[in-house]
Amino acid sequence: MLESRDRSGLLASKVALVTGGASGIGAAICMEFAAHGAAVAIADVDGAKADRVVEQMGGAKNKVMATAADVADFGQAEAAAVETLERFGAIDILVNCAGWNQFRSVEDYTQDYWQKIRAVNLDGPWNFCTAVMPAMMKQRSGKIVNISSAAGYLGVPNAAPYSTSKMGVIGLTRALAVDLAPHNINVNCICPASIETPLLDEATGSKFKAAMIDRIPLGRLGKPVDISKAVLFLAGPDSDWITGVVLPVDGGLTCCLRAHHYE
């Protein structure tokens, strides 16, 4: 029998915790979730910016809250989970979106540089996964969506720590998908290509963006909403029998060697 759903309430009664939710892709995900009925907790290292997103989303009356948290610190991840549980009573969805990168030549790699990128991009998802797992295991349900990168598939010049950390997120996703399946918890991963965000503007320039557009078959950079729509699918009920999936959302970048033929 065909099943129909009210799409506007796809996440009604669900509670989502989103890291890096104060800007870019993370903010788009928070707004997407709220538009489909979810209560949303925005966890970000920039608490003031997270508060501004809460106001943009209509304030506390619209089932949205902000919590300041450095994802690299497990204690802060745990505190964010506890605060979300105290406010909303559950955590049904976790999206690990917080990330950081700088491009540097290999000669300029340092231990501090490596450790900071790893701490945000790989330790951060681990910290938040382990912080929310007890609640999800107790309720015997949950959706975890990790945001990796096309750089988790492909080597990127001057970004070995970033590529390594994002590949680690793919491994974490697949391993936790297996371990958490008996608890009815789905763990999936999205790998975006270059997305028009403040982080991209901070890390790159116009030449990088033009080169990326030339390599992407669909001929443009991604937009935050391109990612938020994919996250909505993996966080919602239509993906209940999907786990361990690594989904490129990249305009076709990772499916080809070169987007355009030479004339």
Structural description of this entry:
The protein has 263 residues and is α/β, with parallel strands linked by helices. The protein has one domain: NAD(P)-binding Rossmann-like Domain (Rossmann fold). Helix content is 44%, strand content 14%. It has eight helices and seven strands, in the order βαβαβαβαβαβαααβ. A seven-stranded parallel β-sheet has the order 3-2-1-4-5-6-7, with helices on both faces. The radius of gyration is 18 Å and the shape is globular. 45% of the residues are buried.
| Count of beta strands | 7
Query: Any idea what the CATH superfamily is called?
Result: NAD(P)-binding Rossmann-like Domain
Q: From the 3D structure, determine the CATH topology.
A: Rossmann fold
* Average pLDDT level: 92
In sequence order, what are the helices and strands, one letter per element? EHEHEHEHEHEHHHE
CATH class: Alpha Beta
